[in-house]
Structure formats: structure tokens, C-alpha cells
């Protein structure tokens, strides 16, 4: 199972996330290597900064767009922002920037509970900082005295606050289905066995853009709880009252997809005893399965390591086979030479 330390070594990944430091570990504790701590800080920082960028783009483009100039659609701008931050920070943290995506990764077995909680916390911090910076910008504009109304115009809502008057159940269904699709695209496009996993940022970004375009008329559906929280926190009150729906829906959709992916990656024979003759074949299969548990930012290193191990194993097996053949030839030669001498 991968961790948020997608850029760290395999030894770091196997270490528990929070244990005593080296030299302070007790008899039942494992010393925590320092690279794990540095990886944790870097990953959380990447998630916070990436989410901040997404919130600023998600607020700035629709609010400051001028319709007469045929601007870039807000949904496409947000999708491109997702692609950009995944390219910029994905190799550090895996490029979640969304609590629902983090939950999907956790339930799919790619990240541990403590790390998932830390990711969500970092994403919320980044989202709130982005909203706060944008709120400060709006406060500095004399022609926009009521910043709450501005945030309300982009906040998610249902009922009277939906453009088409969508009900609670309708908006919930859109959130669940949309996030389930988004998390499925993320998990599938970043899987280790995906031959085009380097294109994952494009796949996730375009999917997010299409979903936002679809959810805009329904009720500014954000498909991202952190984004929904940032948009609602500085509103006039009603966005916060309806915020719960935009956490329940995405988390439910992410849970469905994460569990489905975990089910497909599980096989009954894992962990069972196998014969020595099947062990090598089984290891090769497990290597490809294990690659699915890594974030796309670390796949290149993992693939190189596994290829190197397989090449080394092949060379060792070849040398061993050659040595055995040579021994057999020597024994046969000695046997026949001894027999011929006795006949003579």
C-alpha cells in the first residue's frame, strides 16, 4: 500500500507513519527515519498549495469574467488548474487536492488512515487560505462593498439557491455520481499498470471541467468538499447551512468507487502458500498489482526498481543454470573417462 510519501524510497514507504525518532524508540517501537518526516511535510505543503490555487482560480475566473470579451469558461479554467497543479505537485503528494479523492485512495488501499486525515486537513487549510486571500482582494475594491453577495454567487446550493430549483435529493445524486466518476478516473489513470499514466493530470482535469459544466446549472455543484467549504465560509449564511450536503455527497461517491477498486484489486489466492515452482510467477504478478498502490508521481522509480530486480533475478538464474550444466558436464566427462580407462 502506498503512502503520501510517493517520492520517497521503498524503505521509507514500509515504515510506520508516526513512531519514535531514531535513538528514542522503545523495544516495541520502530525508529522513524527522518526522510519520512520530510516527506510528510512536503506532501502536506503540496496539497495545501495546490488546493489554494484551485480555490483562487475557482473564485476569480467566474467573478471577474467579462461576458462581452468571450472569456474562458469557469469550468474549463478550473479543469486546467487541476491539470496544472497535478503536474506541478503530483510527484510530491500524488495530486489529490480534494478530500473525496483522498477518501477514494484510502478505501482503495493506497494510503493509510492517519495520512488520509492529514491530507484532508492540509486541503482544508489551503482552501481556506485561498478564500481568505480572495476575500481580502474583494474588500480592497471600492465598487464591491458586499463581499458576501459575491461569494454567494459562486457558492453551491439547492432548492431556492439552485438555478433550476433542484431539490436536495437531485443535487445529492449529482454529487454522488459526479464524484464517483471523478475518483474512478483518478484511480484508473494513476494505476501503475496503466501504460499512459503520465497523462493522468489531463484525464482528471478534463473530467473535472466537464463535471463542473454539468453541475453549474444544477446548483454550482463543486465536486470537492474543500472547494465547497471555501466558497461557503465567507457567504451571507445560507451557503454554510447547506454545506453539509456537499460533504456527504462527495464522500459517499468516493466511498463507492474506492471500495469497488479495492474489490477488483483483491484476489482470493493472495497470502496463500504456493509451491516453489509457482513462486516466481506469483511474484511477477504481485509486482504489477503492487504498482497500482502507488501514486503516479512515484511510478517511474518503482518501475525502474522492479525492472532492475527482475533483470538481476534473470541473470542470477541464468548463471546458476549455467553453473549446474557445467558441473553436470564435468561429472559426465569424469565418468566416461574413468570408464574408458578401466576398459583399456
Give a quick rundown of the structure.
Helices cover 68% and strands 0% of the residues. By secondary structure, the chain is an all-alpha fold. It is globular and about 55 Å long.
Structural notes for this entry:
The chain has 344 residues and is mainly alpha-helical. Helix 2 (34-64) packs antiparallel against helix 3. The protein has helices at residues 10-14, 34-64, 74-93, 99-107, 113-139, 147-152, 168-189, 200-219, 225-233, 238-241, 245-265, 276-291, 299-343. It has one domain (10-265): Glycerol uptake facilitator protein.
Assign the CATH architecture.
Up-down Bundle
Return the average pLDDT rounded to an integer.
76
Distance between the termini: 69 Å
| Biggest beta sheet summary | none
CATH topology: Glycerol uptake facilitator protein
For this structure, what is the CATH homologous superfamily?
Answer: Glycerol uptake facilitator protein
Cα shape: globular
Oligomer kind: single chain
Number of helices, counting only DSSP H or I runs of 4 residues or more: 13
**Beta strands, count:** 0
Strand coverage percent: under 5%
Question: What's the layout of helices and strands?
Answer:
Blueprint: H1 10-14, H2 34-64, H3 74-93, H4 99-107, H5 113-139, H6 147-152, H7 168-189, H8 200-219, H9 225-233, H10 238-241, H11 245-265, H12 276-291, H13 299-343
Helix pairs in contact: 2-3, 2-5, 2-9, 3-8, 4-5, 4-7, 4-11, 5-9, 7-8, 7-11
Features:
single chain, 344 residues, mainly alpha, Glycerol uptake facilitator protein, 13 helices, 68% helix, 0% strand, globular, disordered N terminus, disordered C terminus
Amino acid at each position: 500500500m502506498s503512502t503520501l510519501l510517493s517520492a520517497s524510497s521503498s524503505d521509507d514507504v514500509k515504515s510506520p507513519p508516526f513512531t519514535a525518532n531514531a535513538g528514542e524508540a522503545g523495544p516495541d517501537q520502530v525508529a522513524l527515519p527522518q526522510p519520512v518526516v520530510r516527506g510528510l511535510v512536503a506532501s502536506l505543503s503540496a496539497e495545501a498549495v495546490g488546493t489554494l490555487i484551485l480555490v483562487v482560480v475557482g473564485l476569480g475566473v467566474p467573478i471577474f469574467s467579462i461576458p462581452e470579451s468571450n472569456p474562458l469558461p469557469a469550468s474549463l479554467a478550473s479543469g486546467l488548474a487541476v491539470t496544472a497543479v497535478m503536474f506541478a505537485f503530483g510527484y510530491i503528494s500524488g495530486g489529490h487536492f480534494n478530500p473525496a479523492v483522498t477518501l477514494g485512495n484510502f478505501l482503495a488501499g493506497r494510503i493509510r488512515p492517519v495520512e488520509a486525515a492529514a491530507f484532508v486537513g492540509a486541503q482544508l487549510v489551503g482552501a481556506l487560505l485561498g478564500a481568505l486571500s480572495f476575500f481580502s482582494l474583494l474588500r480592497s475594491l471600492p465598487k464591491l462593498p458586499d463581499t458576501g453577495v459575491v461569494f454567494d454567487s459562486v457558492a453551491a446550493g439547492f432548492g431556492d439557491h439552485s438555478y433550476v430549483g433542484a431539490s436536495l435529493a437531485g443535487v445529492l445524486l449529482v454529487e454522488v455520481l459526479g464524484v464517483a466518476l471523478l475518483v474512478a478516473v483518478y484511480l484508473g489513470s494513476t494505476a501503475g499498470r496503466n501504460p499512459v499514466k503520465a497523462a493522468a493530470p489531463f484525464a482528471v482535469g478534463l473530467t473535472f471541467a466537464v463535471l463542473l459544466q454539468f453541475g453549474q446549472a444544477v446548483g454550482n455543484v463543486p465536486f470537492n468538499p474543500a472547494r465547497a467549504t471555501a466558497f461557503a465560509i465567507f457567504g451571507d449564511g445560507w451557503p454554510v447551512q447547506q454545506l453539509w450536503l456537499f460533504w456527504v455527497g462527495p464522500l459517499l461517491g468516493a466511498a463507492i468507487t474506492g471500495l469497488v477498486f479495492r474489490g477488483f484489486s483483491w484476489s482470493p489466492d493472495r497470502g496463500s502458500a504456493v509451491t516453489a515452482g509457482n513462486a516466481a510467477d506469483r511474484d511477477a504478478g504481485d509486482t504489477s498489482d503492487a504498482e497500482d498502490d502507488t501514486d503516479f508521481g512515484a511510478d517511474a522509480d518503482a518501475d525502474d526498481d522492479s525492472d532492475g530486480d527482475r533483470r538481476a533475478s534473470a541473470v542470477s538464474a541464468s548463471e546458476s543454470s549455467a553453473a549446474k550444466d557445467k558441473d553436470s558436464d564435468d561429472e559426465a566427462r569424469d565418468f566416461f573417462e574413468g570408464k574408458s580407462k578401466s576398459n583399456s
